[in-house]
Structure formats: structure tokens, C-alpha cells
């Protein structure tokens, strides 16, 4: 497999006391949440919550938290990584909350026709196919699983370009460095131009996304308010506009 890893500068907070002075909330969030959480951030600013959000792949963000990165809220693209930081004791397991189910799509830039099936990706017109690194990016893992289940992976493996996270994956295709990108619906619906083909959810494990509160004190209190907003009718409506399925939005046991 020819892989090119896009190096993304990720701002990691220090390892001091979590949560700051209560006015600023430090959040580690999966890249597919970039547009949705930026909107939530704006809405909650009126309530005095100043959110500083770092976006990246869930696996790498979880590793940073395990190493002591100073976040009060972690919103992962897979519950697996929320469970990981809970198991390590860095975050509070009792606060794990499912907030939505993501969807993988095959996105192409303006002027290109989206594939009509995963089998179409073997067509010569798709010379380069971008996807997140499946070792730490949940959307990349789901995409690979779908391609394997559809019997396509072996036919296109040499065309794959690996990106650091799902947001970087879309950039490859948007900037003309890939013919198609396997990305989150939440990013596809807010990217001007282009088109996309939704991948059958039956071809991969559900992308049930979960968040978890980390630390104690004012930062954790602000994180709890952020999480509560996502469960509110307004939060559910907002996430629905970004393509997250609503039936799975619930409080995890």
C-alpha cells in the first residue's frame, strides 16, 4: 500500500490542573465534529462557556489524554476511545454519553461524478483514494472494513492515500490530491461543491460516537454543561443537521 500521512499540527494543552478558571473549556474532539462543535461553541458562549477545541483523530487524542493532556471533555468518533481514557483513569467513566452515530460517504470535488457503489472505486477514473489511517481514525477503520466486506479492498489497496484524520482526508480530495475521499457525512454536507455517495452502514461496525468528562472542578462542570446541550432538543437538532443519526443519541449505561 502506498500511504502518505498528512502531518497535522495539533495543539496540545499542558499537563497542569484541568479546566482552567471555569471560563474556558478545553475540548479534544474528533475531526468529523469540526463544523458541528464550532456551532455549539458559538451558542454556549452566551452562557459564559469559552470552549477551546482541538480537533484530530480519536486514537491520537486519546493517547494524548492518557499521557496527561489537559482536556476537560473528550468527544470521540468511536466509543472505544472514550472507554480507553476511562479505563486509564484519566476521565470519569460514569460520564460516558453516546451523542450520535456517524456515517461514511465517498466524497468527490466539484466536476467529478461520485461513485455509485464501492465497486466503482476500482474504476480507472479513481486513481487516488484518500481515507483516514484505520489504526487511529474511526472513519478510516470503518471505510476499510466496508471495502473489505464489499470485496473491493484488494483491488484498490495500491491507490489508497492515508491521512491523519477524517478532516485531512477530505482536504486531499478538495485540493485535487485525490480523486475521491472516504469521509464523514458531517463534513460532506458542509463542504461547498462536490458530491457524495453514502456507504451502506451494514458493511461496517456502527460508528457510535461518545463523549466523556475528564478531571474535576470548574472545567468538568463546564464540560458537563456542554454534554447536556448535546442531549437537549436543540443539540439533537443541531447534530441532525450535520448528518448524525438521532436514534442512537442516548445516555450510555
Describe the structure.
With about 250 residues, this protein is an alpha/beta fold. It folds into 2 domains: about 25-100 and about 210-240, D-Maltodextrin-Binding Protein, domain 2; about 100-205, 3-Layer(aba) Sandwich (D-Maltodextrin-Binding Protein, domain 2). It has helices spanning about 35-45, 60-65, 80-85, 140-150, 155, 165-175, 185-190, 220-230, 235-240; strands at about 25-30, 50-55, 75, 95-100, 105-110, 130, 160-165, 180-185, 195-200, 205-215. The strands form 2 sheets. A 5-stranded mixed β-sheet has the order 2-1-3-10-4, sandwiched between helices. A 5-stranded mixed β-sheet has the order 7-6-8-5-9, sandwiched between helices. Helix 1 (about 35-45) links the parallel strand 1 and strand 2 (about 50-55). It is globular, with a radius of gyration of 18 Å. The N and C termini lie far apart (about 40 Å).
Low-confidence stretches: 1-22, 247-253
Query: In which order are the strands of the major sheet placed?
Result: 2-1-3-10-4
Helix and strand element order: EHEHEHEEEHHEHEHEEHH
For this structure, what is the CATH class of the largest domain?
Answer: Alpha Beta
Q: What is the mean pLDDT?
A: 89
Distance between the termini: 40 Å
**DSSP summary, beta strand count:** 10
The CATH superfamily of the largest domain is known as Periplasmic binding protein-like II
Q: Quick one: overall form?
A: globular
Derived from helix and strand composition plus strand pairing, the structural class reads alpha/beta
Number of domains: 2
Give the percentage of residues in beta strands: 15-25%
| Topology-level CATH name of the largest domain | D-Maltodextrin-Binding Protein, domain 2
Q: Under the CATH scheme, which architecture of the largest domain would be assigned?
A: 3-Layer(aba) Sandwich
The major beta sheet can be summarized as: 5 strands, mixed
